[in-house]
Structure formats: structure tokens, C-alpha cells
């Protein structure tokens, strides 16, 4: 990665760069020597200031630097990666607390990881899946015609297959770059996914399958989502050559859960930030973006940056918490008032071995009960220890946002024991990541749209406001909501800005 002109170093920027190079660790008293003293406000002048050091912001910075522009990336947290987070375990391993899997057609995150030397490996997918429904557990193979679709009754399967085909067909009619222009956009955007499912997934077991698909894709209940938004999301689950499908969203083999990163997904933003050095400033939550003549003055805690262009690469509800002067157009502000984060957490239990594998199980569960209704085998590629990961989603996450961590742990381990037996009750360690409680994310995996939002406000999603440009996975036309969408949005916004500078 070519570095552009070096920026003047401030103490703060040097620390940010050091932290990024060291793996985005928390700054310590030892590192600063003067940790108790409040840092003097530093200032910089660059071509482009980027708000947010997630995959989107860092990718934009990479491309702008490669084009010879000066940049500063202001990141609120003491680490890069945003919704991509490596949790260090007591046994020295790392497991993913946020974005984790990639799959076919997610070309841009794969290319980025390749460029940084971060290898992938196949998500453990050998053996049978488990369905836990109506108090009964059944194991089923996933190499048949149904793939990983749980074998509910025949009528339900037939109904679900028709529903799935209808959703894919409707999604093909949604232009990914402007879903609000679909011929039936008004009709599809005035109903929730729930009301459409009630009319179409009429067999209860089919409704169950679609509900589970919905919560596992969006971490939102079907009643929270516009049908048009769901169709757009399906359409976006592909690339320029390959239209998206529902199946690609839900599957492990040949789907969005196919691969993981050796060493954990956060290695990608950590290594990317290292190439940017002291351009990345940590612990710098941006508070205001103010126009000053033909420039912008962006004020974060402890640092002020003046730039010709601003890239805001944070989720829409977080962008709404920044003060803008002058005010943003009403449509843009109202859009961000209407794109809440979904609700998600991940719980990972660590064991000496992935013991479920010996029982012929791949660690993947679909369940109609418990705090955890879907699980994955999150063990490292060498299986030197076992890791069971459970998603806590939507209503189930909201019910546990304020619960003591031990309460959540007990609920999760009870679920794991129901699915995998009593051995699951005694992990060697346990980690919990609740995204709703994170100051600079406030939910996840993605912002969601209820009826009326895309058709009324959609055009404001990417439209620059003066010299302020918008990035982040929520602005991507392919793989919106995913790491791939974040990278694509960074690449798109860099081109957009370069065309203007
Ligand atoms: C539990 C969970 C599971 C997921 N699973 C997957 C998966 O398996 N595969 C996949 O591809 N994707 C997954 N995702 C989604 C994926 O992680 C995101 O789509 C992607 O990381 C978003 O990147 P981003 O750069 O657009 O936004 P973010 O990662 O949210 O980055 C935004 C950055 O801006 C910072 N910020 C916020 N406000 C401010 C401010 N005022 N000033 C400065 N900085 C600010 C934040 O700290 C953050 O670092 C998952 C997400 C979650 C939460």
C-alpha cells in the first residue's frame, strides 16, 4: 500500500497509529507515560476526513491514499473494525464477536483479505444439523435436495419452497441501486414482511421456517421489516454478475456462512489500519461536522480535522448523532431517524474439544425455543479447542439487553445442553458480546427499514450533501449488511470523492 504524504504527527495521532499497528490494543499508561493527563486538542488538515474506522472507512482511506490524497480516519473506539471484533479467549485463541463469515460473490472482502494475507478456511459443516421444535430434537443431513432446510412436515416444506421461489422472483424485480424504483415498490413497501408471510406461508411449519430465516438473516422479527426491504436485501445477496437469492443468505455451503478467517475476522481491519499508520486516530468520537467556506471542520474528542471532503462511514443511526452545521436536508435526517439497528448478540462457549463432532453433528442448530435459536461451530481450523457460538436475536436479544451477564450465560448454556447434551453445561470459558449495548453500534448486524422508508427516503441513502459523502455497509448495493458491503461502500465512496477533488 503506497503511503501518501506523511501527516504532521501529534501525540494523539502517534498513539492511534501505534495502537493500530499493535493490533488495535487499548492505550495504556505504559504506552503514553502520561495517561492521566488530558491530551491537548490536536488539529490536522487533510484532503479527506473519514468518520469511522470500520471496514468501510478503512477501505475508503486505503483507496484515497493510493490515489495520493491525504486522509485522517477518526474512530470513536479504542480499536478499529467496528462491527468486526476479535474476542481474545483465556486459552489464547480468538473468536468472533461480530461479523465472521463470508461466502460466494462476496468478492470485495475476499480480495481485501487476500491482499492483506488473511487466509480463509471452511466453516465446520461436516455431519448433521439439528432441528429442535415442539420440544423434540431431530438430526438431519444437509446434503440432500433440501440443503440445510430443516425437515418439517411435507406440506410445510412444499409451502416454504413456493414462498422461497416467490421471494426470489420478486427480488429479481428490485433494482439493487434504487429499490424504490421497482415497478411494485409502493405495493411492497406498504406492508411488513410479517403480513406478507401470513398471507403466503400459510402452513404453520412453513411460517416457522421463514420466521427462523428472517431472524437469522436480519436479527429482526418479520413485523419490523418492509417487504420491499427484504426483497432488496435478497437481491443484494449477489454481485454484478450473479443475482442474489434467499438461499445464498441462509446457507453455509455455497452461502454467506461458507468461510471464516484464520485468526479471526478482525485481522482484516487491523492489518488494513496498520497500512494506514498514524492516519487512523483512535478514541476520537466525532461530535460535529461544520462547513467552513469550501472546507469542513470535523471536531472529535481531542482532535479537530479540516478537510475538503468528509466521508461518514458509520451506521445511519450513529450518523444521526453527529451535529451538522448547516443542518442536513430534512430528507437525509429523517432517513437516519428511520433506519434503526436490528438487535443481536453472540455467545460463545469454549470447550477442550468440539465434542459434538464425535456425535456426528456439525454444531448448527435451528430451534423454536430458548434464548439461542441458531448456533455454529466456531472452533479454530485446527480444532485445538471447541467453540460453540449461539446467536441471540431480535425479541430474544431485547429481552436480555439489561440482564446480568451470568443470567444470559445460564440461559445460553441451558440451550446448548438441550441441543448438544450435558457436556455443553461446563465450558472452560464463555464470552458474550451484546451489540445493542455498544455505544458506537447500538445493535446489529445492520440497520433495517420498516414500511414506507425506502420509497419515501431511499434516495437520500447515498446522495452526498455538499462535500459530505456517505459510506458504510448500509449504503452498499451488493451485500448490504455484510462485511463485503462495507468494503464495497468504501471503494464506491473513494471513487465518488476522487471524482470531485
Ligand atoms: C453479531 C454480528 C454478526 C455479524 N455477522 C456477519 C457475518 O457473519 N458476515 C458478514 O459479512 N457480516 C456480518 N455482520 C455485519 C458486518 O459486521 C458489518 O456489515 C460490517 O462490519 C459493517 O462495517 P462498516 O464499516 O460499514 O460499519 P461499522 O463496522 O459499524 O464501522 C463504523 C465505525 O464507526 C465508528 N463510529 C461510530 N460513530 C462514530 C463517531 N461519531 N465518530 C467516530 N467513529 C464512530 C464505530 O466505532 C465503528 O468502528 C455481523 C454483524 C454483527 C454485529
Please name the CATH architecture of the largest domain.
Answer: 3-Layer(bba) Sandwich
Shape: globular
CATH superfamily of the largest domain: FAD/NAD(P)-binding domain
What name does CATH use for the topology of the largest domain?
FAD/NAD(P)-binding domain
Mean pLDDT: 92
The number of strands is 19
Compute the number of helices: 17
Write down the domain tally: 3
CATH class of the largest domain: Alpha Beta
Beta-strand percent range: 15-25%
State the separation between the terminal residues, measured CA to CA.
21 Å
Cofactors and ligands: flavin-adenine dinucleotide
Low-confidence stretches: 1-38
How would you characterize the largest beta sheet?
8 strands, mixed
Radius of gyration equals: 22 Å
The residue fraction in helices comes out at 25-40%
Structural class: alpha/beta
Structural account:
This is Flavin monoamine oxidase family protein. Its cofactor is FAD. Residues 55-498 form the Amine oxidase domain. It comes from Streptomyces galilaeus. Pfam families: Amino_oxidase. By secondary structure, the protein is an alpha/beta fold. It folds into three domains: 11-82 and 266-328 and 465-498, FAD/NAD(P)-binding domain; 86-106 and 120-124 and 342-437, Polyamine Oxidase, Chain A, domain 2; 151-250, Guanine Nucleotide Dissociation Inhibitor, domain 1 (Orthogonal Bundle). It is 32% helix and 20% strand. It has helices spanning 11-21, 29-32, 55-66, 107-115, 154-172, 185-189, 193-200, 204-218, 227-235, 246-250, 267-276, 316-319, 330-337, 395-398, 405-420, 453-457, 483-498, and strands at residues 42-51, 71-74, 86-88, 94-96, 120-122, 128-133, 136-140, 259-261, 280-281, 286-292, 295-300, 303-312, 323-325, 344-351, 361-367, 374-377, 386-393, 429-434, 468-470. The strands form four sheets. Strands 1, 2, 9, 10, 11, 12, 13 and 19 form an eight-stranded mixed sheet that branches. The longest helix has 19 residues, at 154-172. It is globular, with a radius of gyration of 22 Å. The two termini are 21 Å apart. 55% of the residues are buried. Mean pLDDT is 92; it is low at 1-38. Bound molecules: flavin-adenine dinucleotide. Flavin-adenine dinucleotide binds at residues 51-57, 74-77, 82-84, 98-102, 285-286, 313-315, 318, 322, 344, 346, 435, 440-441, 444-446, 472-473, 481-486.
Amino acid at each position: 500500500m503506497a503511503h501518501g504524504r506523511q501527516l504532521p504527527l501529534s501525540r494523539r495521532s502517534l498513539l492511534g497509529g501505534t495502537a493500530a499497528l499493535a493490533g488495535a490494543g487499548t492505550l495504556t499508561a505504559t504506552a503514553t507515560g502520561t495517561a492521566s493527563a488530558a491530551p491537548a486538542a490536536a488539529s490536522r488538515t487533510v484532503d479527506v476526513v473519514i468518520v469511522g474506522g470500520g471496514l468501510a472507512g478503512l477501505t475508503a482511506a486505503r483507496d484515497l491514499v493510493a490515489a495520493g490524497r491525504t486522509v485522517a480516519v477518526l474512530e470513536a473506539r479504542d480499536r478499529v473494525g467496528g462491527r468486526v471484533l476479535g474476542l481474545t479467549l483465556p486459552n489464547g485463541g480468538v473468536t468472533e464477536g461480530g461479523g465472521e463469515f463470508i461466502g460466494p460473490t462476496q468478492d470485495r472482502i475476499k480480495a481485501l483479505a487476500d491482499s492483506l494475507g488473511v487466509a480463509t478456511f471452511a466453516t465446520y459443516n461436516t455431519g448433521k444439523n439439528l432441528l429442535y421444535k415442539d420440544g423434540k430434537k431431530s438430526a438431519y443431513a444437509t446434503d440432500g435436495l433440501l440443503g440445510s432446510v430443516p425437515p418439517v412436515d411435507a406440506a410445510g416444506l412444499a409451502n416454504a419452497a413456493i414462498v422461497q421461489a416467490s421471494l426470489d422472483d420478486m427480488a429479481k424485480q428490485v433494482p439493487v441501486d434504487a429499490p424504490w424504483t421497482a415497478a411494485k415498490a409502493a405495493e411492497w413497501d406498504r406492508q411488513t414482511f410479517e403480513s406478507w408471510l401470513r398471507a403466503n406461508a400459510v402452513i404453520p411449519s412453513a411460517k416457522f421456517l421463514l420466521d427462523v430465516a428472517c431472524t437469522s438473516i436480519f436479527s429482526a422479527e418479520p413485523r419490523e421489516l418492509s417487504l420491499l426491504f427484504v426483497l432488496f436485501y435478497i437481491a443484494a445477496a449477489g454481485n454484478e454478475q450473479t443475482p442474489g437469492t434467499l438461499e445464498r443468505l441462509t446457507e453455509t455451503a455455497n452461502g454467506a456462512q461458507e468461510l471464516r478467517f484464520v485468526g479471526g475476522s478482525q485481522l482484516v481491519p487491523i492489518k488494513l489500519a496498520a497500512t494506514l499508520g498514524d492516519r487512523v486516530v483512535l478514541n476520537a468520537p466525532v461530535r460535529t461536522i461544520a462547513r467552513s467556506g469550501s472546507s469542513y471542520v470535523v471536531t472529535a474528542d481531542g482532535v479537530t480535522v479540516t478537510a475538503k471532503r468528509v466521508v461518514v462511514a458509520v451506521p445511519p443511526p450513529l450518523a444521526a448523532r453527529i451535529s451538522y452545521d448547516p443542518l442536513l436536508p430534512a430528507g437525509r435526517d429523517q432517513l437516519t431517524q428511520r433506519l434503526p439497528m436490528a438487535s443481536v448478540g453472540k455467545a460463545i462457549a469454549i470447550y477442550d474439544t468440539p465434542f459434538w463432532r464425535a456425535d456426528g453433528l456439525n454444531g448448527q442448530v435451528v430451534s423454536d425455543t430458548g434464548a439461542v435459536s441458531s448456533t455454529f461451530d466456531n472452533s479454530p481450523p485446527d480444532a485445538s479447542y471447541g467453540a460453540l457460538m449461539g446467536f441471540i436475536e431480535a425479541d430474544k436479544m431485547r429481552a436480555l439487553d439489561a440482564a446480568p451477564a451470568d443470567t444470559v450465560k445460564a440461559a445460553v448454556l441451558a440451550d446448548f445442553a438441550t441441543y448438544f447434551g450435558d457436556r455443553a453445561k461446563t465450558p472452560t470459558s464463555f464470552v458474550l458480546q451484546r451489540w445493542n449495548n455498544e455505544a458506537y453500534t447500538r445493535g446489529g448486524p445492520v440497520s433495517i427499514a420498516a414500511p414506507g422508508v425506502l420509497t419515501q427516503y431511499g434516495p437520500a441513502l447515498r446522495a452526498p450533501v455538499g462535500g459530505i459523502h456517505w459510506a458504510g455497509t448500509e449504503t452498499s448495493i451488493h451485500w448490504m449488511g455484510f462485511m463485503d458491503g462495507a468494503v464495497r461502500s468504501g471503494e464506491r465512496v473513494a471513487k465518488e470523492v476522487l471524482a470531485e477533488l
